[in-house]
Design brief:
Layout lengths: L20 H11 L4 E2 L13 H16 L4 H9 L9 H12 L8 E4 L1 H13 L5 E7 L3 H9 L3 E6 L3 H13 L3 E7 L13 H13 L3 E5 L15 H4 L5 E6 L11 E4 L3 E3 L5 E3 H10 L7 H13 L4 H4 L1 H21 L2 H7 L2 E2 L7 E5 L6 H11 L1 E2 L1 E2 L12 E5 L5 H20 L1
Parallel strand pairs: 1-13, 3-4, 3-5, 5-6, 6-7
Antiparallel strand pairs: 2-8, 7-8, 9-10, 11-12, 12-15, 14-15
Length: about 425
């Protein structure tokens, strides 16, 4: 008999188009290498210097020596398997105290292989049976809805930042015999919408979470990158009842190739015998059966970077903050220039004006699907991201996401001009 497999013999998630979304974007970028790309959410490469990797590694090794470790112990820390929860939790805690005013016990920190692993660990731990449901802000980052799909966890969308809808949806689910377990939200400059929640809305969401017995999964990769200079507290900083599991990443603030993230899970898990552990310890059990531990080499480089910048990543990212703010300013100005008010009304075009981050959403009068994106790339030399995949229950067919993170100011100007020509052509067609 042949060893060939049938799709029906594999997990159902593999047939879900959602799992093709990120792969398709990578492949289409390779197919159109000369196109100006508003598609990727990756950091600008101008901030990376290869020699910094070795320098930060040496800083971290000197840090270990300064703590009294022998050369043999330093070698073991770098080359061997390490603690499942990671080796730089204390450095992350110090950085969060400086950057966010957030008091975190190192024991509640788990260092992960990117924030994506953190999502998988938390979802697996919290959702214990088929009645458990993950609520997600809509539109929603496909990484978390994809992770839920891999784990056979049902997701239910909640309009972004709508605490009244959150309470109503959670109540309806309970009446149906289901258990809304947690709400996933990106409070600052969200991917894909660019939305940032006012502090009052953050407090309202936390209040509803308490009333509905929900945990909140706060994903915070973009919080530094304000365009206006306004700084709002993280949900975790506002958390008084240990309702928030905070997911962080060094991909946007340091460099993505390290594949380093972390989570803060200080919730108490109480066993039948009365003994207690932290949720972080339970998540470490799951991690021990997935990635075993996070590579010590990546942790050492990021740890050295934190030490070198005196545990203040906000200050270290000042140049990047200014760069992305200028990029968004340029994008919005060029959209306004190419689509003045009368033209917008005639064509049915519009966009939001994010307060920071990478992303802006453009509404267009045609179906902004992958076929349209490929036409735009082939004929006009511009790539963007269709929004439909970000809506768990459908929607977004006439919206596209524009990211400025990988482009220069001149490329943004050129790209918007090309995109405007495409939009007018599609509208006419």
């Amino acid at each position: 008999m042949s060893g060939d497999l049938l799709p029906g013999e594999l997990h159902g998630s593999l047939a879900d188009p959602l799992l093709d979304a990120m792969t398709f974007l990578n492949e289409v970028t390779e197919r159109y290498p000369d196109a100006l790309s508003f598609a990727p959410g990756r950091p600008h490469e101008g901030f990376f210097e290869t020699d910094q990797v070795a320098k930060h590694l040496e800083v971290y090794l000197d840090h270990l020596r300064g703590r009294g470790l022998t050369e043999a112990q330093v070698r073991t820390a770098l080359f061997q398997y390490g603690p499942t929860k990671g080796i730089i939790g204390d450095l992350i805690a110090r950085t969060l105290a400086n950057d966010e005013g957030l008091t975190v016990e190192p024991a509640s920190v788990v260092v992960t292989v990117g924030a994506q692993e953190g999502m998988l660990l938390v979802l697996r731990a919290l959702c214990a049976g088929p009645q458990d449901v993950l609520l997600v802000s809509s539109p929603c980052y496909v990484g978390v809805t994809g992770a839920a799909r891999l784990l056979d966890i049902a997701t239910v969308p909640v309009p972004e930042g709508d605490s009244v809808a959150l309470a109503a949806i959670a109540g309806r689910l309970r009446a149906e015999g289901r258990r809304p377990r947690a709400l996933y939200v990106v409070p600052d400059f969200a991917n894909p919408s660019g939305t940032s929640l006012p502090t009052s809305v953050r407090e309202e969401l936390l209040a509803v979470a308490g009333q509905q017995d929900l945990l909140v999964l706060e994903d915070d990769p973009y919080g530094f990158f304000s365009r206006t200079g306004e700084r709002r507290p993280t949900l975790k900083a506002l958390d008084r009842d240990r309702r928030v599991v905070h997911l962080g990443s060094f991909a946007k603030t340091c460099f993505p190739g390290a594949r380093l993230g972390y989570l803060i899970a200080d919730q108490v898990v109480r066993a039948p015998d009365g003994s207690t552990t932290l949720l972080a310890d339970q998540l470490a059990k799951l991690k021990s059966m997935t990635t075993v531990n996070t590579p010590a080499l990546s942790q050492a480089v990021i740890g050295g970077l934190l030490i070198a910048h005196d545990f203040r990543l906000r200050e270290a990212n000042a140049g990047a903050v200014a760069h992305y703010a200028a990029g968004l300013d340029r994008l919005l100005a060029e959209l306004e220039r190419h689509f003045p008010a009368a033209e917008r009304e005639r064509l049915g075009v519009g966009w939001n004006e994010p307060e920071g981050g990478y992303f802006t959403v453009l509404t267009v009068p045609f179906t902004a699907d992958t076929a349209a994106m490929e036409r735009c790339a082939a004929q006009y030399g511009v790539l963007w991201t269709p929004m439909a995949d970000f809506y768990p229950d459908g929607g977004g067919e006439h919206r596209l996401r524009l990211s400025i993170s990988a482009l220069t100011a001149d490329q943004i100007t050129d790209g918007v001009a090309r995109l405007a020509d495409f939009v007018r052509a599609e509208a006419g067609a």
